[in-house]
Amino acid sequence: MQGGEVILALDEFCIENSARREHQRLTRRLLEDGVSDPAEEDALRLLSAFLEQEDFSALRAADPELAGGHPVKVRLLHDVGGRVRWEKLHNTVVSEEQTGK
């Protein structure tokens, strides 16, 4: 998690359940610690907005990787208009040929 973004791993769970689990984890942490962390609060707001605005059935139907069970990571962030957007992160493997080694 970085400022203004959240990374979800969809290895075991779909995009919706991964977002809900991260939201629950952050909520518990903020309540248990009793200490305000601005980055975690921002992430919690981002996750809340994402969970409220997305049509998860449509997302899973449009992209089977978002249904979970795939080694996929998704980044959540705010767009210029303040709406939450998401993007899949692809692992890039750089060969020795490409690096010149």
Task: Provide a brief overview of the structure.
With 101 residues, this protein is of the alpha+beta class.
SSE order, as H and E?
EHHHEEH
Proportion of helical residues: 40-55%
- The number of helical runs is 4
Oligomer: single chain
Average pLDDT across residues?
85
The largest sheet has its strands arranged as 1-2-3
Shape summary: globular
Q: What is the strand content? A: 15-25%
Distance between the termini: 32 Å
Structural class: alpha+beta
Radius of gyration: 16 Å
SSE topology sketch:
Blueprint: E1 5-9, H1 15-33, H2 38-53, H3 56-62, E2 73-78, E3 84-89, H4 96-99
Antiparallel strand pairs: 1-2, 2-3
Overall description:
By secondary structure, this protein is α+β, with helices and mostly antiparallel strands. Helices cover 46% and strands 17% of the residues. It has four helices and three strands. It has a three-stranded antiparallel sheet with strand order 1-2-3. Helix 1 packs antiparallel against helix 2. The longest helix has 19 residues, at 15-33. The chain starts with a strand and ends with a helix. Mean pLDDT is 85; it is low at 92-101.
